[in-house]
Specification:
The chain has 265 residues and is of the alpha/beta class. 51% of the residues lie in helices and 8% in strands. It is built from 11 helices and 6 strands. The protein has a 4-stranded mixed β-sheet, with helices on one face. Strands 5-6 form a two-stranded parallel ribbon. The longest helix is centred in the middle third of the chain and has 24 residues. The radius of gyration is 18 Å and the shape is globular. The structure holds glutathione.
Length: 265
């Protein structure tokens, strides 16, 4: 029995859920970011982050590690490419999606969903546009030669999709006159059943956000998102966030003991 601590709002959880669906695996999804599920999530991941995958008594946290576990344990319909070069390329894109694209898009998203009265610091959106352009240019180059980012459909495409699906809403979109192959790729991805289902869940989540008991007062910050904010010069803004108690930090986390995890749900 597979259980996924999920959230339709988390690009990392969305990546894992799409891979479970791609592989045709049965699983139960629990919204781990609902406040009512925090204790259950904390019992399997003391960082209190989604996604976490529980496969019988085995707990796997961190999306890239979950994907790697799923590839090893359920190898049918692989998402890691076969050739060494393509595999390295696809994993590098997964990492770029997880650490760079996520950081930029998260850091400009707070004024869209968090419960706050201020507006985005001046220059932040421009910094996001400049850095995302580098991403779009690199993808355009790769996609000029291939149907998907690393050849056949792979972890690269699935990791990038949830992020790139939000760029229009975040006002940092790419366009056909500059990035025609990227636009072609996005349309092709959007039509895949796993992506169409993902978009439906994400839209439903956004529409019902105000009625959901999720944290919207304080923002959960961690490594890459802080790095991008500081590296782009918004340290004063960030330190004010800390001083004004609008920051939540992840808990410390260590590998489990290889014992069965505590059953909470
Ligand atoms: N490195 C982790 C990152 C996961 C992550 O950042 N999860 C966020 C949602 S996107 C989270 O659970 N944050 C806790 C919160 O928002 O309360 C992974 O790849 O799984």
């Amino acid at each position: 029995m597979i259980k996924l601590y999920d959230s339709a709002f988390s690009p990392f959880a969305r990546k894992v859920r799409m891979i479970l669906e791609h592989k045709g695996l049965n699983f139960e999804a629990v919204d781990g970011l609902l406040k009512s599920n925090h204790e259950a999530l904390k019992a399997v991941n003391s960082r209190i982050e989604v996604p976490v995958l529980v496969d019988n008594d085995l707990v796997v946290a961190n999306s890239a590690d979950i994907v790697s576990y799923l590839e090893f344990r359920y190898p049918t319909k692989p998402v890691y490419p076969e050739t060494p070069a393509a595999r390295v390329h696809a994993r590098a894109w997964e990492r770029a999606a997880d650490t760079l694209v996520d950081a930029i898009l998260s850091d400009i998203s707070y004024w869209k969903w968090a419960d706050r009265q201020d507006s985005m610091p001046e220059g932040l959106l421009q910094a996001a546009r400049a850095d995302l352009r580098l991403v779009y240019d690199a993808l355009e180059k790769d996609l000029a030669q291939r149907e998907f980012v690393s050849g056949p459909l792979s972890i690269a495409d699935i990791a990038l999709f949830p992020h790139l699906a939000s760029v229009r809403a975040m006002e940092v979109e790419f366009a056909a006159h500059e990035h025609p192959n990227l636009v072609r790729w996005f349309k092709q991805m959007r039509a895949l059943p796993i992506c169409a289902a993902d978009l439906r869940r994400a839209r439903e989540f956004v529409v019902s956000l105000k009625d959901r008991n999720v944290e919207r007062q304080r923002i959960f910050w961690r490594g890459d998102r802080i790095e991008w904010m500081l590296a782009r010069g918004f340290h004063d803004w960030f330190f004010r966030e800390i001083q004004e108690h609008r920051v939540l930090w992840p808990g410390p986390t260590l590998p489990g003991s290889m014992e069965p995890y505590p059953r909470v749900l």
